[in-house]
Amino acid sequence: MRLGLGVGTAILITSESGQQARQRIGTKLDERAEHLRERAEELKVTAASFVESGKLAVNRVRETLDIAVDAGKQAYSEALKS
């Protein structure tokens, strides 16, 4: 929305030719698009890092639970024998 207002204002107050104004606006839009692509890539890398950290945490919890369940089974088995 703000970009559209800025572009509209620039067109109204500029003393440059239509071709020059279109070129400048096109250049600005290209710069914004490139910035958004770069930011999207940064966010993608950050999200992948969070996902990987989450997977590692889940695996640690799973391993801990497996150990606890095995210990519980062994204790139960030994209790039945006595």
Structural summary, described in words:
This protein is mostly helical. The chain has one domain (2-81). It is 93% helix and 0% strand. It starts with a helix and ends with a helix. The model has no long low-confidence stretch (mean pLDDT 88).
The percentage of residues in β strands lies in under 5%
Order of helices and strands: HH
Radius of gyration: 30 Å
Major beta sheet summary: none
| Helix content estimate | over 70%
Number of structural units classed as domains: 1
Query: How many beta-strand segments?
Result: 0
Secondary structure elements and their pairing?
Elements: H1 2-13, H2 18-81
Key descriptive features of the protein:
82 residues, mainly alpha
Quick rundown:
The protein has 82 residues and is mainly alpha-helical. The protein has one domain (2-81).
